[in-house]
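Hello again, I could really use a second opinion on something today. I owe you a coffee for this, so here goes:
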Amino acid sequence: MHDQPRANPSRAAMTFDQMLERVRYEGAYPTRERAEEAVRTVLAALGRQLTGNERVDLAQCLPTKAALTLTTQIPDTQHLTGWGFVKNLAERTGATPAVARWDTGAVLAIVARLAGPDLLARILRRLPGGYALLFGQAQLLQPDPQPQSLPRPTAA
């Protein structure tokens, strides 16, 4: 829906180098190279899952190198849950699921800050369940829009 104006955040919010330093700190990575590897693999995986205006708007919030990593990925036709995302990342990188989960959390915590609460809420609505925790957010369950009716007793 292009009829609603979208904010065009300033790209100067954080440079790629600053992003790497934040991820290195959040993830307690021993080297900048290891932090960069985590950023690139997690953003590439996210780029395969995220589509639409949320993908475009998120790219505008990221430093240019990070945005390119996100947007050069062809979206996958299979939508993964949060846990599926972590398992897929582990398979692609040859890491354990625990390491893939750690990398995901370290990177997406910074992405969440750059995106801001409104865009993050839109992203989480677009993705299947389980991503909120990966972004460092509470996983709130939505109430069932139509309450289940109790079965009617049958007359014997």
Notes: The CA atoms of residues 40 and 69 lie 6 Å apart. Helices lie at 16-27, 32-49, 52-61, 64-71, 82-93, 97-126, 131-134.
